[in-house]
Amino acid sequence: AAEADQGQEKPRPGVLVGRLGDHGAGGAGGQLPPDLGATLAAATEPEVLALWAGLGYYRRARDLHAAARIIVARDGGRLPGSFQAWLTLPGIGRYSAGAIASIAGGERVPAVDANARRVLLRWLCDSAADAASVRPRELEDAAARLVPAARPGDWNQALMDLAAALVALSRLLAGLPGGAVVPCPGRGSGRPRAGAAKTPDTD
Description:
mainly alpha; disordered C terminus; globular; 11 helices; single chain
């Protein structure tokens, strides 16, 4: 152990996690700083959870730890380079994978969170009756057709920002947490009507 360390203090996971923001991750397909990925992957779960203490959602810490181990062991510390590759990591669902792949990697994929879902449903559904039977993957398929080839990450970020702003405004005007002030026939669900999901540059 002394030979391996050669008198240098072993970097602590907490320090290295903090450095991710300083170094950046190089985007999708980028390279993790070697000490960050290797040290986090080598840490024990109790060490990771101790550093995470007070943040809540401890499942996220466990998923982060497991993902770091996979990235280091399987991919040599290289971050996934596509939507489908991100989905192979623990704790990364379709929304997170879409957001990372489009914003960091420029991949033309949707990123539909709960707020964006509400905006899309209000935009695309014809009526409350038509909206009632929508399935998440059906809406995601429609959202995918809306994402432009150029700057898909900007499109997804704008949609998320718009959705978050509308939700915040609705709560402010309603004066109640979670209140809604703008009635919409598709609120809460929505089946995209045929032909509604065109790419923005063709409208």
